[in-house]
């Protein structure tokens, strides 16, 4: 198992334990609500909410061809999650690189951020921008064809 799934798995296990405890104590409605909350949190912190990642070399190659920004991210990062949700449908128009899966992507994040793996780092036209405003990122997208 990769570390991307540790937090979501812990949320599911803890939610199951809390819901079971609540159900045993005679409150099945509360147990169902608690389990649902924990499952939603697990889903939000999982890699599943992000578009399919590519490695950083492929992302840079695609970006050079189509002009779309590259996003360096990692699962569980609240700023990455905020960027993903604020971009909405436009998120699939960017090239996403999971730095926990791609060592070269992690190196690119460190290079752009003085040795730190600060994410999200958005690369537009070869220029890195750390934790930019989602509206700014949306404005960097080329017009739809």
From TrEMBL:
<keyword id="KW-0732">Signal</keyword>
<feature type="transmembrane region" description="Helical">
    <location>
        <begin position="29"/>
        <end position="50"/>
    </location>
</feature>
<dbReference type="InterPro" id="IPR002109">
    <property type="entry name" value="Glutaredoxin"/>
</dbReference>
<protein>
    <submittedName>
        <fullName>Glutaredoxin domain-containing protein</fullName>
    </submittedName>
</protein>
<keyword id="KW-0472">Membrane</keyword>
<feature type="domain" description="Glutaredoxin">
    <location>
        <begin position="71"/>
        <end position="127"/>
    </location>
</feature>
<keyword id="KW-0812">Transmembrane</keyword>
<keyword id="KW-1133">Transmembrane helix</keyword>
<dbReference type="Pfam" id="PF00462">
    <property type="entry name" value="Glutaredoxin"/>
</dbReference>
<dbReference type="InterPro" id="IPR036249">
    <property type="entry name" value="Thioredoxin-like_sf"/>
</dbReference>
<feature type="signal peptide">
    <location>
        <begin position="1"/>
        <end position="19"/>
    </location>
</feature>
